[in-house]
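Priority: medium. Attachment 1 of 2:
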């Protein structure tokens, strides 16, 4: 069976988009198999994930999106993936530039807006919704109302101070002095697999703050560092706000290995209403894959 696809990326965080409006919808088991196959960078297309899309009828232009990781697992949310979905909607004519797009994910509806288009590059803002801070909502096994600046003994690593946030998926944010000399894969893997603390595992973000937030992320499901992670950027911005390093209601410059973005934490009457993530999304190429 030949399956058409569009390959896209948001600051190097790359995805294979499958529009199931145009093809037969796969079962969850087939999606699991397809993601494991198609994301292989040596034997197939290669990507950080696969996004399965379906067009749905709503008041706004709308797409349902399901996110699958290279290990075949399904993720509740993907920030850069959502930005690519919005860009895809404009690229394929589902929505025009500067019209709000509703992206229906497993757990929430994400609102997105493409403000500019230049050839196959799109400037996209997504509103990721209110971050979850309660340990039971992240989830993280801990006492208290939040998990901010907690010191945890990590096997093979030592004592690490971290803040846990859920911005669609769980993240552990670790502030460091020199991000270039952190062993992201070793430390990230150790924290990610601490099931005694994170029962569902976690993504792990390493952040250096020097006026901008410099972010590197070890992604659960990819099981390595990616060039950029949208929910990780959002979690890092929230953690910076919670620890007094960044202010709300203003753009925070974000620097990742894949490019630059901005994040803005919308706070009203001391409530964190949403995190707005803005940056480029690009169509790399289109094709068909035999599966």
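Attachment 2 of 2:
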């Amino acid at each position: 069976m030949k399956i058409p696809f569009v390959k896209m990326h948001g600051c190097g965080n790359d995805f294979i988009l499958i529009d199931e409006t145009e093809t037969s919808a796969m079962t969850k088991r087939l999606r699991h198999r397809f993601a494991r196959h198609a994301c292989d960078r040596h034997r197939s297309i290669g990507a950080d994930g696969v996004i399965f899309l379906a067009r749905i009828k709503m008041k706004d232009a709308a797409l349902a999106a399901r996110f699958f990781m290279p290990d075949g697992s399904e993720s509740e949310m993907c920030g850069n993936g959502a930005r690519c979905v919005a860009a895809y909607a404009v690229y394929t004519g589902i929505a025009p530039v500067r019209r709000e797009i509703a992206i229906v994910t497993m757990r929430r509806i994400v609102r997105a807006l493409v403000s500019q288009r230049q050839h196959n590059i799109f400037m996209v803002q997504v509103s990721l919704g209110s971050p979850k801070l309660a340990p039971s909502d992240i989830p993280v096994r801990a006492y208290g109302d939040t998990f901010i600046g907690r010191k945890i003994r990590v096997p093979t690593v030592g004592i690490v101070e971290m803040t846990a946030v859920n911005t669609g998926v769980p993240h552990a944010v670790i502030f460091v002095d020199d991000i270039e000399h952190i062993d992201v894969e070793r430390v990230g893997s150790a924290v990610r697999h601490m099931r005694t603390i994170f029962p569902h595992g976690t993504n792990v973000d390493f952040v250096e703050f020097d006026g901008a937030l410099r972010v590197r992320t070890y992604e659960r499901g990819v099981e390595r560092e990616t060039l950029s992670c949208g929910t990780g950027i959002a979690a890092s911005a929230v953690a910076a706000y919670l620890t007094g390093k960044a202010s709300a209601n203003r753009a925070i410059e974000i620097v990742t290995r894949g490019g630059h973005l901005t994040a803005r934490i919308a706070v009203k009457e001391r409530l964190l209403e949403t995190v707005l993530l803005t940056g480029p999304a690009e169509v790399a190429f289109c094709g068909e894959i035999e599966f």
